[in-house]
């Protein structure tokens, strides 16, 4: 038995010394000290040892076990230290290097302008309503008092999917859909993307954004329209902003007007920005045509209303003094990060 213990000890020591990683070292522990290990098997055979020799034999087995365990523990610490050193070498960090900058995006100029407009009108009791960009010809034209032979329906001006479906040229169809619901009164703005067959240049694009507003209620007059838009202009461009209304024609409003605002660059004196006129055209507006009300199921004898429409890009161009609309769509980080 003593020779067997000595042999187990020597083989265990040699295997421990030859182990070059923690996995192999654990294999030695299991093979020698585990439940089915060599040393455990020797302990189980103590029943075959003479009773008077068992104390001495048990002490000898425990000494061998203790030596092997000490050897295993020392070898484990040495291998762990070696692995840690290798990791520190491979995962070294140069703290003198500059850190990587975390580039965080921000809102687009169009988004900033839209949120400002929405804030102003929501503060006046309006709600924001959206509608489909691919629209029926009826809602985009017919329901807005634009008959089949109207020049605005020419294929040179409008993107047609087929005879009955178009890419909307304005967000006014959203107003018609709201009027058809019959829930009066109405105070709403309809922002969204629209499409027209325009050539791309500094002030035009085949795809751009509009914000159109609508108010329907009893006893609404042109004075309400003027007061609302004057307050809107002051909130958007500054408290000293003045407005001017010029007669115009729109098929879906009567009477209709274009609204100008005093140049916020020169205060109306005339400069390069307003081309020396002192005024800048900002939007179109008017009282909702009685025929439009009637087609949407509203009695024009009882209800009246006003509507207006402004280009979102135009607001952004004016507010941030951008001289080329194409800059808004080119995704040039040098331009966008200025806002």
UniProtKB/TrEMBL annotation:
Recorded GO cellular component terms are:
cytoplasm
Q: What molecular function terms (GO) are annotated for this protein?
A: ATP binding; catalytic activity, acting on a protein; magnesium ion binding; phenylalanine-tRNA ligase activity; transferase activity; tRNA binding
Q: Name one GO biological process term.
A: phenylalanyl-tRNA aminoacylation
User: Could you say which cofactors this protein requires?
Assistant: Mg(2+)
Q: Name one Pfam family in it.
A: Phe_tRNA-synt_N
Q: Which reaction does it catalyse?
A: tRNA(Phe) + L-phenylalanine + ATP = L-phenylalanyl-tRNA(Phe) + AMP + diphosphate + H(+)
Q: Where does the protein end up?
A: Cytoplasm
Q: Which residues form a coiled coil?
A: 61-92
Q: Which InterPro entries match?
A: aa-tRNA-synth_II, aa-tRNA-synth_II/BPL/LPL, Phe-tRNA-synth_IIc_asu, Phe-tRNA_ligase_II_N, Phe_tRNA_ligase_alpha1_bac, Phenylalanyl-tRNA_Synthase, tRNA-bd_arm
Q: Which residues form the Aminoacyl-transfer RNA synthetases class-II family profile domain?
A: 117-330
Signal peptide bounds: none
EC number(s) of the enzyme? 6.1.1.20
Keywords of the record: Aminoacyl-tRNA synthetase, ATP-binding, Coiled coil, Cytoplasm, Ligase, Magnesium, Metal-binding, Nucleotide-binding, Protein biosynthesis
Q: Which residues bind Mg(2+)?
A: 254
Cofactor note text: Binds 2 magnesium ions per tetramer.
Record-stated family? Belongs to the class-II aminoacyl-tRNA synthetase family. Phe-tRNA synthetase alpha subunit type 1 subfamily.
The record's subunit annotation is:
Tetramer of two alpha and two beta subunits.
Note the HAMAP family from the entry: Phe_tRNA_synth_alpha1
Q: What is this protein called?
A: Phenylalanine--tRNA ligase alpha subunit
The encoding gene is pheS
């Amino acid at each position: 038995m003593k020779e067997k213990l000595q042999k187990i000890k020597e083989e265990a020591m040699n295997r421990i010394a030859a182990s070059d990683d923690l996995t192999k070292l654990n294999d030695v522990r299991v093979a020698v000290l585990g439940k089915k290990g060599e040393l455990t098997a020797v302990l189980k055979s103590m029943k075959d040892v003479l009773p008077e020799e068992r104390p001495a034999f048990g002490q000898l087995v425990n000494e061998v076990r203790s030596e092997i365990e000490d050897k295993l523990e020392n070898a484990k610490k040495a291998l762990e230290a070696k692995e840690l050193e290798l990791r520190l070498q491979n995962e070294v960090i140069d703290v003198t290097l500059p850190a990587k900058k975390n580039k965080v995006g921000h809102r687009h100029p169009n988004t900033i302008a839209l949120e400002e407009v929405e804030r102003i009108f929501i503060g006046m009791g309006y709600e924001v309503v959206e509608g489909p960009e691919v629209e029926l010809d009826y809602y985009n034209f017919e329901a807005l008092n634009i008959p089949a032979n109207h020049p605005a329906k020419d294929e040179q001006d409008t993107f047609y999917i087929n005879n009955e479906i178009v890419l909307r040229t304005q967000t006014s169809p959203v107003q018609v859909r709201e009027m058809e619901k019959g829930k009066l009164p109405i105070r709403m703005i309809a922002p969204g993307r629209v499409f027209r067959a325009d050539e791309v240049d500094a002030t035009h694009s085949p795809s751009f954004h509009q914000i159109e507003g609508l108010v329907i209620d009893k006893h609404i007059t042109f004075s309400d329209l003027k007061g609302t838009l004057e307050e809107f202009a002051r909130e958007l461009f500054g408290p000293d902003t003045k407005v001017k209304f010029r007669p115009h024609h729109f098929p879906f409003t009567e009477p209709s007007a274009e609204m100008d605002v005093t140049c916020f660059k020169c205060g109306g004196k005339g400069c390069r920005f307003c081309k020396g006129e002192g005024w800048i055209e900002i939007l179109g507006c008017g009282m909702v045509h009685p025929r439009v009300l009637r087609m949407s199921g509203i009695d024009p004898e009882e209800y009246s209303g006003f509507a207006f429409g402004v280009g979102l890009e135009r607001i952004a161009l004016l507010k941030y003094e951008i001289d080329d609309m194409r800059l808004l769509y080119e995704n040039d980080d040098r331009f966008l990060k200025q806002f």
